[in-house]
Amino acid sequence: MKNKNIILGVTASIAAYKACDIIRRLKERDLSVTVIMTKDAEEFITPLTLQTLSGNKVHRGMFDLASEEYNVEHVSLADKADAILVAPATANIIGKVANGLCDDLLSCVIMATKAPVVFAPAMNDGMYSNKILQDNIAKLKNAGYKFIGPIKGKLANGKMGIGHLAEVDTIVKETATVIK
Ligand SMILES: Cc1cc2nc3c(=O)[nH]c(=O)nc-3n(C[C@H](O)[C@H](O)[C@H](O)COP(=O)(O)O)c2cc1C
Questions:
Q1: CA of 97 to the centre of ligand 1 (A)
Q2: pLDDT tens-digit profile of 61-80?
Q3: Which of 8, 11, 13 to mutate to test the pocket of ligand 1 (most atoms within 8 A of CB)?
Q4: What are the structural domains, with CATH classification, of the chain?
Q5: For the sheet containing 146-147, what is the strand order?
Q6: pLDDT per position as a tens digit, 84-101
Q7: 66 lines ligand 1 (CB under 6 A)
Q8: pTM of structure
Q9: CA-CA distance, 105 to 122, in Å (whole number)?
């Protein structure tokens, strides 16, 4: 899969550290990985780690000044993407996209892209079973967005429940299938 660009959206879940493994596995498939992380995701994992592993600039803020050539960053990232994978995907990013909200770089890029978008949710089982979240997922699936997991497993509070991030292997394999 040479010359294909994946945008990996990393959001503020306790599972954010698994983005490291996802990057490594996508790169093993010769995919170029560019990370966009939310502001709150930086509470869980550092941009430096994601930048070092991906080998590409980590995009963070909507209003960061362009460092090299000038372009409207959210539009150029959206155009460049062959697929967008949001892993882990919080209830918040799912809710924002489902309702057309674009108040940060990741939600703007998802809104602007014509590439396939895949969400791998991770959250507490209470959040996952919430009817509004379920309605948001159904709305997004209906609009053509793909979901991988979550699965049953150990959650952040130590209890078992549905909301655990799908296996990295599954996420990477399924994402590869949506790239044209
Ligand atoms: C320790 C901790 C763990 C969290 N884990 C999750 C999670 O796994 N999934 C989730 O949807 N929200 C989780 N949250 C809540 C999100 O961090 C919060 O909704 C955040 O504002 C989401 O921001 P983002 O979607 O812009 O990244 C967690 C919060 C804390 C303090």
A1: 16
A2: 887 766 555 566 678 888 89
A3: 13
A4: 5-178 (3.40.50.1950)
A5: 32-37, 5-10, 83-89, 117-121, 146-147
A6: 999 999 999 999 999 999
A7: no
A8: 0.96
A9: 20
